[in-house]
Write a structure and sequence with these properties.
188 residues; Beta-Lactamase; 6 strands; 35% helix
Length: 188
């Protein structure tokens, strides 16, 4: 699994849509969309547009959102669609410190307190998400992805905006993530 994760991370870093599409197609899923630092107006979901503007307005000169900027009242327009992931061992894994209520409703599981490696062991999409977070750790900039869900999830897919969080001049220590589900479907 490490070799697949390393290759997928490299594909995300390079924005290699062909290789990412092959990853999804090999798992009978539609390909994903990956866009680095998209302008807010190019993002279709209003909650994610809000988060991109929030990040730009509050980030430090070094390009990261300071941890103190994460204020539930200030993030109200996107609440329910927000996840916070803490970086573990420099990006070896990630822990969900918050898994939005509206996200949990669609996935049928609240991942708060769990690691991304646990999710990756259950679903190929967890592997894709791990590659995305690792790529953001290396580039230090936001990424927008649109990916499709396995059939056991009651959302056809997810539009996700990953925003790096850390102290000025420091390493990324967490991610503020907006995650908006696609159309509802009965899970199989």
């Amino acid at each position: 699994m490490d070799a697949v994760l390393d290759a997928l991370t490299a594909n995300v870093l390079d924005g290699d849509d062909t290789a990412i599409a092959a990853f999804f197609t090999a798992r009978d899923a539609d390909p994903s969309i990956v866009a680095w630092s998209p302008p807010a107006d190019d993002i279709g979901e209003c909650e994610l547009q809000f988060l991109m503007r929030f990040w730009h307005a509050r980030r430090s000169p070094g390009g990261l959102l300071p941890p103190t900027a994460i204020d539930p009242l200030a993030l109200r327009p996107a609440l329910g669609f927000i996840m916070l992931l803490d970086v573990i061992d420099g990006g070896a894994d990630f822990r969900y410190s918050l898994y939005g209520s509206l996200i949990a409703e669609r996935t049928g599981f609240d991942w708060t307190g769990h690691t991304l490696s646990e999710m990756a062991a259950r679903s190929f999409t967890g592997l894709f998400y791990a590659a995305v977070y690792r790529a953001v750790m290396r580039r230090g900039e936001p990424i927008y992805t649109k990916s499709w869900s396995p059939t056991h999830v009651a959302a056809t897919g997810w539009s996700r905006l990953v925003l790096p969080v850390g102290r000025p001049g420091g390493a990324i220590e967490r991610f503020l993530v907006g995650n908006v589900p696609g159309a509802w479907r009965p899970p199989r």
